[in-house]
Specification:
This protein has about 350 residues and is mainly α.
Protein backbone atom coordinates (compact mmCIF):
# COMPACT_ATOMS: atom_id res chain seq x y z
CA UNK A 1 0.00 0.00 0.00
CA UNK A 2 2.96 2.31 -0.01
CA UNK A 3 6.47 2.58 -1.35
CA UNK A 4 8.65 1.17 1.42
CA UNK A 5 12.09 1.83 -0.04
CA UNK A 6 12.57 5.18 1.62
CA UNK A 7 11.23 3.82 4.91
CA UNK A 8 13.83 1.07 5.02
CA UNK A 9 16.61 3.52 4.15
CA UNK A 10 15.51 5.85 6.94
CA UNK A 11 15.26 3.03 9.50
CA UNK A 12 18.64 1.59 8.57
CA UNK A 13 20.17 5.03 8.93
CA UNK A 14 18.83 5.18 12.51
CA UNK A 15 20.19 1.72 13.31
CA UNK A 16 23.59 2.54 11.84
CA UNK A 17 23.74 5.74 13.85
CA UNK A 18 23.02 3.79 17.01
CA UNK A 19 25.71 1.25 16.25
CA UNK A 20 28.26 3.92 15.42
CA UNK A 21 27.54 5.67 18.67
CA UNK A 22 28.30 2.37 20.45
CA UNK A 23 31.52 1.81 18.58
CA UNK A 24 30.12 -1.10 16.56
CA UNK A 25 30.91 0.17 13.08
CA UNK A 26 31.99 -3.28 11.86
CA UNK A 27 28.35 -4.44 12.12
CA UNK A 28 26.99 -2.03 9.53
CA UNK A 29 26.99 -4.54 6.71
CA UNK A 30 25.23 -7.16 8.85
CA UNK A 31 22.15 -5.10 9.63
CA UNK A 32 18.92 -6.85 8.61
CA UNK A 33 16.71 -5.06 6.09
CA UNK A 34 13.57 -5.90 8.01
CA UNK A 35 11.95 -3.56 10.53
CA UNK A 36 10.80 -6.37 12.83
CA UNK A 37 14.33 -7.76 12.92
CA UNK A 38 15.73 -4.34 13.75
CA UNK A 39 13.35 -4.04 16.67
CA UNK A 40 14.46 -7.47 17.89
CA UNK A 41 18.01 -6.08 17.86
CA UNK A 42 16.98 -2.78 19.46
CA UNK A 43 13.78 -3.57 21.44
CA UNK A 44 13.88 -0.27 23.34
CA UNK A 45 14.45 1.96 20.33
CA UNK A 46 11.66 4.52 20.60
CA UNK A 47 12.31 5.73 17.04
CA UNK A 48 11.93 2.25 15.56
CA UNK A 49 8.81 1.51 17.61
CA UNK A 50 7.26 4.78 16.47
CA UNK A 51 8.08 4.04 12.84
CA UNK A 52 6.58 0.55 12.96
CA UNK A 53 3.59 1.80 14.92
CA UNK A 54 2.86 4.51 12.38
CA UNK A 55 3.27 2.03 9.51
CA UNK A 56 0.81 -0.31 11.24
CA UNK A 57 -1.61 2.57 11.78
CA UNK A 58 -1.56 3.39 8.06
CA UNK A 59 -2.71 -0.12 7.18
CA UNK A 60 -5.23 -0.23 10.05
CA UNK A 61 -3.31 -2.84 12.06
CA UNK A 62 -4.40 -1.36 15.37
CA UNK A 63 -3.19 -4.28 17.46
CA UNK A 64 0.43 -3.81 16.41
CA UNK A 65 0.12 -0.02 16.44
CA UNK A 66 -1.18 -0.11 20.02
CA UNK A 67 1.59 -2.44 21.18
CA UNK A 68 4.29 -0.21 19.68
CA UNK A 69 2.65 3.08 20.62
CA UNK A 70 2.08 2.10 24.23
CA UNK A 71 5.63 0.81 24.60
CA UNK A 72 7.22 3.83 22.94
CA UNK A 73 5.19 6.17 25.16
CA UNK A 74 6.09 4.17 28.25
CA UNK A 75 9.78 4.33 27.37
CA UNK A 76 9.74 8.08 26.70
CA UNK A 77 6.61 9.98 27.70
CA UNK A 78 8.31 13.26 26.75
CA UNK A 79 8.63 12.18 23.12
CA UNK A 80 5.91 14.03 21.21
CA UNK A 81 5.86 11.50 18.36
CA UNK A 82 5.40 8.61 20.79
CA UNK A 83 2.56 10.46 22.52
CA UNK A 84 1.00 11.22 19.11
CA UNK A 85 1.10 7.60 18.00
CA UNK A 86 -0.41 6.41 21.27
CA UNK A 87 -3.16 9.05 21.08
CA UNK A 88 -3.96 8.20 17.46
CA UNK A 89 -4.39 4.52 18.25
CA UNK A 90 -6.59 5.25 21.27
CA UNK A 91 -8.68 7.61 19.18
CA UNK A 92 -9.06 5.52 16.02
CA UNK A 93 -9.17 1.82 16.83
CA UNK A 94 -12.67 0.36 16.33
CA UNK A 95 -13.07 -0.88 19.91
CA UNK A 96 -12.22 2.50 21.47
CA UNK A 97 -14.17 3.50 24.55
CA UNK A 98 -15.48 6.87 25.69
CA UNK A 99 -12.72 6.92 28.29
CA UNK A 100 -10.03 6.25 25.67
CA UNK A 101 -11.33 9.08 23.48
CA UNK A 102 -11.10 11.40 26.48
CA UNK A 103 -7.59 10.12 27.22
CA UNK A 104 -6.54 10.72 23.62
CA UNK A 105 -7.98 14.22 23.85
CA UNK A 106 -5.75 14.93 26.82
CA UNK A 107 -2.68 13.71 24.91
CA UNK A 108 -3.51 15.88 21.89
CA UNK A 109 -3.94 18.93 24.13
CA UNK A 110 -0.54 18.23 25.69
CA UNK A 111 1.03 17.99 22.22
CA UNK A 112 -0.57 21.22 21.06
CA UNK A 113 0.53 23.02 24.23
CA UNK A 114 4.12 22.20 23.19
CA UNK A 115 3.61 22.50 19.42
CA UNK A 116 0.67 24.84 18.69
CA UNK A 117 1.06 24.34 14.93
CA UNK A 118 1.15 20.56 14.96
CA UNK A 119 -1.40 19.76 12.21
CA UNK A 120 -1.76 16.10 13.09
CA UNK A 121 -2.40 16.96 16.71
CA UNK A 122 -4.95 19.64 15.83
CA UNK A 123 -6.94 17.30 13.58
CA UNK A 124 -6.68 14.49 16.14
CA UNK A 125 -8.08 16.82 18.78
CA UNK A 126 -10.84 17.84 16.36
CA UNK A 127 -11.71 14.15 15.93
CA UNK A 128 -12.14 13.62 19.66
CA UNK A 129 -14.58 16.52 19.84
CA UNK A 130 -16.51 15.12 16.87
CA UNK A 131 -16.91 11.83 18.68
CA UNK A 132 -18.17 13.77 21.68
CA UNK A 133 -20.66 15.49 19.32
CA UNK A 134 -19.08 18.89 19.92
CA UNK A 135 -18.85 19.94 16.28
CA UNK A 136 -18.27 23.62 17.04
CA UNK A 137 -14.97 22.84 18.75
CA UNK A 138 -14.13 20.21 16.16
CA UNK A 139 -14.41 22.70 13.31
CA UNK A 140 -12.44 25.20 15.38
CA UNK A 141 -9.41 22.90 15.53
CA UNK A 142 -9.82 21.79 11.91
CA UNK A 143 -9.66 25.41 10.83
CA UNK A 144 -6.62 25.96 13.05
CA UNK A 145 -4.86 23.14 11.18
CA UNK A 146 -5.84 24.66 7.83
CA UNK A 147 -4.43 28.03 8.91
CA UNK A 148 -1.12 26.26 9.43
CA UNK A 149 -1.39 24.40 6.12
CA UNK A 150 -4.30 25.15 3.76
CA UNK A 151 -3.46 21.97 1.82
CA UNK A 152 -3.56 19.56 4.75
CA UNK A 153 -5.45 16.55 3.43
CA UNK A 154 -6.54 15.09 6.76
CA UNK A 155 -8.22 18.33 7.79
CA UNK A 156 -10.54 18.10 4.79
CA UNK A 157 -11.24 14.45 5.53
CA UNK A 158 -12.21 15.40 9.07
CA UNK A 159 -14.44 18.18 7.73
CA UNK A 160 -16.14 15.75 5.39
CA UNK A 161 -16.73 13.28 8.20
CA UNK A 162 -18.26 16.01 10.36
CA UNK A 163 -20.59 17.12 7.60
CA UNK A 164 -21.60 13.51 6.94
CA UNK A 165 -22.64 13.04 10.56
CA UNK A 166 -24.44 16.38 10.54
CA UNK A 167 -26.36 15.33 7.42
CA UNK A 168 -27.76 12.37 9.36
CA UNK A 169 -28.49 14.47 12.43
CA UNK A 170 -30.32 17.08 10.36
CA UNK A 171 -32.54 15.14 7.92
CA UNK A 172 -34.81 16.71 5.31
CA UNK A 173 -38.57 16.81 5.82
CA UNK A 174 -38.94 13.61 3.80
CA UNK A 175 -36.56 11.84 6.16
CA UNK A 176 -33.59 11.80 3.79
CA UNK A 177 -30.17 12.99 4.91
CA UNK A 178 -29.65 16.75 4.99
CA UNK A 179 -28.65 17.70 1.44
CA UNK A 180 -26.77 20.84 2.47
CA UNK A 181 -24.43 18.89 4.72
CA UNK A 182 -24.08 16.04 2.21
CA UNK A 183 -22.98 18.52 -0.44
CA UNK A 184 -20.46 19.99 1.99
CA UNK A 185 -19.19 16.50 2.79
CA UNK A 186 -18.67 15.73 -0.90
CA UNK A 187 -16.90 19.05 -1.42
CA UNK A 188 -14.58 18.35 1.50
CA UNK A 189 -13.66 14.88 0.24
CA UNK A 190 -13.12 16.27 -3.26
CA UNK A 191 -10.72 18.84 -1.83
CA UNK A 192 -8.92 16.08 0.06
CA UNK A 193 -8.21 14.09 -3.12
CA UNK A 194 -7.09 17.27 -4.85
CA UNK A 195 -4.42 17.54 -2.17
CA UNK A 196 -3.59 13.82 -2.36
CA UNK A 197 -4.72 12.14 -5.61
CA UNK A 198 -3.51 8.77 -4.29
CA UNK A 199 -5.76 8.78 -1.23
CA UNK A 200 -8.03 5.93 -2.32
CA UNK A 201 -10.13 5.96 0.87
CA UNK A 202 -11.60 9.34 -0.09
CA UNK A 203 -12.56 8.04 -3.53
CA UNK A 204 -14.35 5.15 -1.82
CA UNK A 205 -16.21 7.56 0.42
CA UNK A 206 -17.25 9.75 -2.51
CA UNK A 207 -18.35 6.68 -4.40
CA UNK A 208 -20.48 5.46 -1.51
CA UNK A 209 -22.14 8.87 -1.13
CA UNK A 210 -23.12 8.98 -4.79
CA UNK A 211 -24.12 5.33 -4.78
CA UNK A 212 -26.54 6.02 -1.91
CA UNK A 213 -28.16 8.59 -4.21
CA UNK A 214 -28.36 6.02 -7.05
CA UNK A 215 -26.01 8.21 -9.06
CA UNK A 216 -23.89 6.17 -11.53
CA UNK A 217 -21.06 8.68 -11.20
CA UNK A 218 -20.11 6.54 -8.19
CA UNK A 219 -18.58 4.08 -10.68
CA UNK A 220 -15.93 6.65 -11.60
CA UNK A 221 -14.85 7.10 -7.99
CA UNK A 222 -14.81 3.37 -7.27
CA UNK A 223 -12.85 2.78 -10.49
CA UNK A 224 -10.23 5.33 -9.44
CA UNK A 225 -9.90 3.71 -6.02
CA UNK A 226 -9.53 0.28 -7.64
CA UNK A 227 -6.87 1.57 -10.02
CA UNK A 228 -4.89 2.77 -7.00
CA UNK A 229 -5.35 -0.53 -5.14
CA UNK A 230 -5.68 -3.22 -7.85
CA UNK A 231 -4.59 -6.01 -5.52
CA UNK A 232 -6.85 -5.05 -2.63
CA UNK A 233 -10.02 -7.18 -2.66
CA UNK A 234 -11.72 -4.88 -0.15
CA UNK A 235 -11.33 -1.97 -2.58
CA UNK A 236 -12.47 -3.97 -5.61
CA UNK A 237 -15.68 -5.03 -3.88
CA UNK A 238 -17.47 -1.64 -3.92
CA UNK A 239 -16.73 -1.29 -7.66
CA UNK A 240 -18.01 -4.80 -8.37
CA UNK A 241 -21.17 -4.25 -6.34
CA UNK A 242 -21.83 -0.88 -8.01
CA UNK A 243 -21.45 -2.47 -11.45
CA UNK A 244 -23.87 -5.16 -10.36
CA UNK A 245 -26.30 -2.52 -9.13
CA UNK A 246 -26.10 -0.47 -12.33
CA UNK A 247 -26.68 -3.33 -14.75
CA UNK A 248 -23.10 -4.35 -15.60
CA UNK A 249 -23.41 -7.90 -14.29
CA UNK A 250 -20.76 -9.58 -16.46
CA UNK A 251 -18.17 -6.96 -15.48
CA UNK A 252 -19.21 -7.38 -11.86
CA UNK A 253 -18.70 -11.16 -12.06
CA UNK A 254 -15.23 -10.64 -13.52
CA UNK A 255 -14.31 -8.34 -10.65
CA UNK A 256 -15.68 -10.78 -8.07
CA UNK A 257 -13.53 -13.49 -9.66
CA UNK A 258 -10.47 -11.24 -9.40
CA UNK A 259 -11.25 -10.81 -5.72
CA UNK A 260 -11.49 -14.56 -5.23
CA UNK A 261 -8.11 -14.99 -6.92
CA UNK A 262 -6.69 -12.49 -4.45
CA UNK A 263 -8.47 -14.10 -1.51
CA UNK A 264 -9.96 -17.57 -2.01
CA UNK A 265 -11.91 -17.22 1.26
CA UNK A 266 -13.79 -14.07 0.19
CA UNK A 267 -17.28 -15.42 0.88
CA UNK A 268 -19.10 -12.23 -0.05
CA UNK A 269 -17.66 -12.27 -3.59
CA UNK A 270 -18.74 -15.90 -4.02
CA UNK A 271 -22.20 -15.04 -2.71
CA UNK A 272 -22.62 -12.14 -5.13
CA UNK A 273 -21.68 -14.26 -8.14
CA UNK A 274 -24.33 -16.72 -6.99
CA UNK A 275 -26.81 -13.88 -6.60
CA UNK A 276 -26.20 -12.67 -10.16
CA UNK A 277 -26.44 -16.21 -11.51
CA UNK A 278 -29.75 -16.70 -9.71
CA UNK A 279 -31.60 -13.42 -10.12
CA UNK A 280 -30.12 -11.91 -13.31
CA UNK A 281 -29.08 -14.89 -15.42
CA UNK A 282 -31.38 -17.61 -14.14
CA UNK A 283 -28.66 -20.27 -13.93
CA UNK A 284 -29.80 -21.95 -10.73
CA UNK A 285 -27.24 -24.76 -10.71
CA UNK A 286 -24.36 -22.27 -10.97
CA UNK A 287 -25.99 -20.13 -8.30
CA UNK A 288 -26.17 -23.10 -5.91
CA UNK A 289 -22.53 -23.92 -6.64
CA UNK A 290 -21.35 -20.41 -5.71
CA UNK A 291 -23.59 -20.19 -2.64
CA UNK A 292 -22.18 -23.52 -1.45
CA UNK A 293 -18.65 -22.21 -2.08
CA UNK A 294 -19.43 -19.20 0.11
CA UNK A 295 -20.79 -21.51 2.82
CA UNK A 296 -17.62 -23.61 2.77
CA UNK A 297 -15.79 -20.46 3.87
CA UNK A 298 -18.51 -19.14 6.15
CA UNK A 299 -20.88 -21.93 7.29
CA UNK A 300 -23.12 -19.45 9.13
CA UNK A 301 -23.86 -17.44 5.97
CA UNK A 302 -27.64 -17.42 6.44
CA UNK A 303 -28.38 -15.41 3.29
CA UNK A 304 -26.55 -18.01 1.21
CA UNK A 305 -28.52 -20.85 2.85
CA UNK A 306 -31.75 -18.94 2.24
CA UNK A 307 -30.99 -18.33 -1.43
CA UNK A 308 -30.07 -21.98 -1.93
CA UNK A 309 -33.53 -22.74 -0.58
CA UNK A 310 -35.08 -20.35 -3.10
CA UNK A 311 -33.14 -22.04 -5.91
CA UNK A 312 -34.33 -25.50 -4.91
CA UNK A 313 -37.86 -24.24 -4.47
CA UNK A 314 -37.80 -22.82 -8.01
CA UNK A 315 -36.43 -26.18 -9.25
CA UNK A 316 -39.36 -27.92 -7.54
CA UNK A 317 -37.24 -29.72 -4.95
CA UNK A 318 -39.31 -29.08 -1.82
CA UNK A 319 -37.20 -31.32 0.43
CA UNK A 320 -33.90 -29.58 -0.33
CA UNK A 321 -35.56 -26.19 -0.13
CA UNK A 322 -36.90 -26.88 3.38
CA UNK A 323 -33.53 -28.31 4.41
CA UNK A 324 -31.77 -25.13 3.26
CA UNK A 325 -34.27 -22.83 4.99
CA UNK A 326 -33.78 -24.96 8.10
CA UNK A 327 -30.02 -24.40 7.95
CA UNK A 328 -30.55 -20.64 7.74
CA UNK A 329 -32.86 -20.75 10.76
CA UNK A 330 -30.44 -22.97 12.66
CA UNK A 331 -27.79 -20.27 12.46
CA UNK A 332 -30.22 -17.39 12.89
CA UNK A 333 -33.60 -18.30 14.42
CA UNK A 334 -34.78 -14.73 13.81
CA UNK A 335 -34.17 -14.81 10.04
CA UNK A 336 -37.79 -14.15 9.05
CA UNK A 337 -37.32 -14.52 5.29
CA UNK A 338 -36.50 -18.21 5.64
CA UNK A 339 -39.18 -18.76 8.27
CA UNK A 340 -41.88 -17.30 6.02
CA UNK A 341 -40.67 -19.25 2.96
CA UNK A 342 -40.56 -22.51 4.94
CA UNK A 343 -44.02 -21.95 6.44
CA UNK A 344 -45.49 -21.18 3.03
CA UNK A 345 -43.82 -24.24 1.45
CA UNK A 346 -45.16 -26.57 4.13
Amino acid sequence: MMNKNWIWAWILAIAVAQLVSCGGTEMKTKLPKDLDSLIVMFPDSVELLIKRGNNSLKIYDYRQAMADGAKAFRLDSNNVDARMLYADVLNNRPERTIEEIAEAQGHYKMIISKQPKNQRGLVGLASTYSQQMDFERSFQYINEALKVNPKYRDAYIMKGSNYLVLSKLNPEKDGSAGKKYLDLAKSSYETAVQQDPNFYEAYLMLGSLYQAEKNPICLEYFTTAASLQPDNAEVLYPLAYAKQEFGQQEEAIELYRQMIQLDTTYAEALFQIGYIKQFYIGDLDSAIYYYNSAIQTEPRYVEAWHNIGLCYETKGDKTMALKSYGKALKYDPNFELSRKQADALR
